[in-house]
Amino acid sequence: MLIDNMMVIDPHIHMTSRTTYDYLVMKEYGVVAIIEPSFWLGQPRTHVGTFQDYFNSLIGWERFRAEQFGIRHYCTISINPKEANNEPLAEQVMELLPLYACKEGVVALGEVGFDDMTEAEEKYFRLQLKLAKELDKLVLVHTPHRNKKEGTSRSMDICLEEGLDPLQVIIDHANEETVDEVLDRGFWCAFSIYPNTKMGNERMVELVKKYGSDRIIIDSAADWGMSDPLAVPKTAQLMLESNIREDHVKAVCYGNALKAYGQSGEMKEEHWLEPTAIDQRQLYEGNSVLRGQTPMVEKPFQESIIIR
To answer: pLDDT at residue 48 above 60?
Structure first.
């Protein structure tokens, strides 16, 4: 454990691509809750049924798996920007989204936005924003890795053109090039601590020193690539060692994510402050998170009255 008693939230991590061991270590490092945005799995999907199974996994098995290790799991639902370019498939996925967007534990529509900034991407970006507005849902916007500044500006323009309140939109994968505009225009500004590509945590320390903590969120965006599911607690530790005020560290690594996504009504602090006891003997649709290991079973009431 890096930080004594500090709780952190990772509001963007793709646990579908991670192992159960990651959940175990994340819990030890103070991660109490995560948000798993629906995303591109690395190989284009060719049938709408694969999206349906994936969405069912996000609201079912993956939530069960996280809670078996004491971490609260939420998710966002979308057709991601990259796969929006397969328009016949995107049309079918759009029909699924209203069925999942209002499920328990779904805190936003996302990731939506741009990959290559094509006409098809903009079409489904706008359609999903319209759906979010209709359902009064928050939006998580993926900003492109190429043409970052132009793509971020255009994404915010489109959100405003579609009538979204900036305080209900999280602009993700921000960097030094885009942070001023995102904050100036009133949106939530999220940074992904992802090695060698999106953002390093030494750079993040300097950004918090410069901008403070207002509307700034840190996530890992960890997935199947070279990424780190401990990016948020490690960055919190580095910030404390760099003499950043503790209240600012807690805001960018915990409080702001709760404040932003808590607007959904689905994400509440009491979920992890008053957790149900872990019982790894439990099954989900007949399946266990264990692969032959001895199950962990908590007995919180008995533990609270024992004096050793």
So the answer is: yes
